[in-house]
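Quick one: structure for this chain?
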Amino acid sequence: MNDSAKYIIQFVIILLSGGLLLKIFTVQVISDDFSKGGSRKEVEYPYRGTITDRHGELIVYNSPVYELMVIYKEARIEDTTRFCALFDIEREQLEQALKKARRNRLLPTLVREKIYNREFARFQAHLVDFPGFYVQARTVREYSGPQLANALGYIGEISKKQLEKDTVDYYQSGDFIGITGLESSYEEYLRGKRGLKVKVVNANQVVQGSYQEGKLDIPATPGTNLVSTIDLDLQRYAEYLLENKTGSIIALEPATGEVLTMASGPSYDPNLLTGRHFSQNYAQLRVDTLKPLFNRPIMADVYPPGSIFKPATET
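Got it. Here's what it folds into:
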């Protein structure tokens, strides 16, 4: 074989190899066909730490919920009316979510939040009819009773201003953060640390299992459980005394200074500021003329002390 023939064969091999590489690049990076299957990264949100009273009685805990997410590039809705009825969502809300998702075509975008188990079970089998849509597990706060709302505070979606102040880059848009009370003061301990799961999905984006047997998964770290100094029985009694009254009651353990009771009146049921109707309930509480959101024990002007020396002078 002469040199010219050898060079021609080498050129043909290089040309074919280049074409093969270009095809692989097109299929894996550019082609829409490949994006309809493969793997998908999902955030694993940690369980937020619980809160108990000094005797171990549960005050705040977590309940599992789901969020409906969409990846715009993969999204397909053939019947919008059916979609809205199935997922109990207004058409306007869906359009707003898709408009937001369009700006980040490859990233997951929230469509509907706080879907409880029973509702999820109702539409779970129909998710396959809507490529690009999937559910993601999360938790919401639940409360054992209507007590201690002002001292506990509440959590809410992180604001743009709070994201800008996050110097350690822990939070992402859509995360929840303690806004007031103990939820805010102990946020760093209660929040835990998010994880990551990589899952195999088919052409309809239905999860088929873990990617590479979970080798790339990062488990979430639960938040630290908080044991407060509150005596819940005493707290209930204090709030009973404040019914239909305006004021506050604080009881301390004299030997240690521990807060046994911190009651504010009027107050509200903390379960109103969790779940799907958070925004609606918060708006109503905020305009209430009785100011139930106002934490009087620590935010009100100085109250005149009661007659604390009477027992001594009357004996």
